Amino acid sequence: PETYYALLLMDGDRMGEWLSGGGATARPYRDTFHPAIETELDRRFDSQPAVAAYLDTPRAISPARHLAISGALGAFANLIGRHVIEEIHNGRLLYAGGDDLMAMLPTGELLAAMHALRHAYSGTAGNDGDQAANGYFRLHGQLHLCMGPSASASMGAVIVHHQTPLTTALAELRRAEQRAKTEGRRNALSLSILKRSGGAIRHTARWTPPIAGICEISTLNAFSDALVKGQGVSRRAAYNVANWLADLPEPSALGGQSGITDYLESVLTYQFTRQGIGETAHAHRLARLATVDPLGTPLTTASEIRERLLGLTGVAEFLARETRRPT
């Protein structure tokens, strides 16, 4: 069978602002107090504008902040990142330096590893055995400070055939990371799949759901699992979707956003049922994700919607192939 492997590149977002205390990372002095103290301050000095102005002033940067950031990035680079990549997901850490990380992974574990890394970086709960929570990561009985829930990271990944020149793979990997920061506006991931036949799939998604209640990463994983584990399920569902998308009507011809979403869900349900996928939730989620961009803004043309849906189904189908799955 053909052998593919995955490369992952991660970069923490707005690190310059974190170190300078400016921009989106700035926090007022009131946020440094315990909530009970903050409430009491507001009660006692509600008639004194000078106190209120002080409490709302961005907190000045301090050596303690730099030490905390340095400790969090050191723990992530030296301990947490290696644990997630090599001990949980059977990959190999190629480089780790603070908020930067590069790794090689089995293709079937790529999405899960990216998801775990994202939560480990911020210290938020995810699918990593509840090791990360409340801004900390528990490893071998010790708590390690993380960057915190306000921090985010962007990731690029590429899946390539093992005979693909490394320079080609690395160039595509860097482009994927840039797409995560530009198309996804940071706190995002972008995946490129370079097929041996010469075709390519490129898809960008944000870690935060673009539609309330519909996580894009979970949707991809669930649909990929359905293509593998369902009794009598055929992976031709993804190919059939690609075929009929060539004749996708413009949203305006179907009454706008709601009309195109209902149309997609209806056709996807029909196609999936024919291929043995009886769970209608897949069609429901994919139809809604396909009609918005990574930021949740409605797409207005058939070509944009076609590209989004082909990315979603193409990634899930590729990862569902038997030779890509973890054993």
Proportion of strand residues: 15-25%
Total helices: the number is 11
Low-confidence stretches: none
- List the secondary-structure elements in sequence, H or E: EHHHHEEHEEEEHEEHHHHH
SS class? alpha+beta
Strand order of the largest sheet: 2-3-1-7-8-9
Distance between the termini: 15 Å
Total strands: 9
Shape: globular
Q: Could you tell me the mean pLDDT? A: 89
Rg calculated over all Cα atoms: 22 Å
The helical percent reads 40-55%
Report the sheet with the most strands, covering strand number, pairing sense and barrel closure: 6 strands, mixed
Describe this structure in words.
The chain is of the alpha+beta class. The chain contains eleven helices and nine strands. The strands form two sheets. It has a six-stranded mixed β-sheet with strand order 2-3-1-7-8-9. Strands 4-5-6 form a three-stranded antiparallel β-sheet, with helices on one face. α4 runs antiparallel to α5 and α9 (257-274) runs antiparallel to α10. The longest helix is centred in the N-terminal third of the chain and has 26 residues, at 63-88. The chain is globular, with a radius of gyration of 22 Å. It starts with a strand and ends in a 7-residue tail after the last helix. The model has no long low-confidence stretch (mean pLDDT 89).
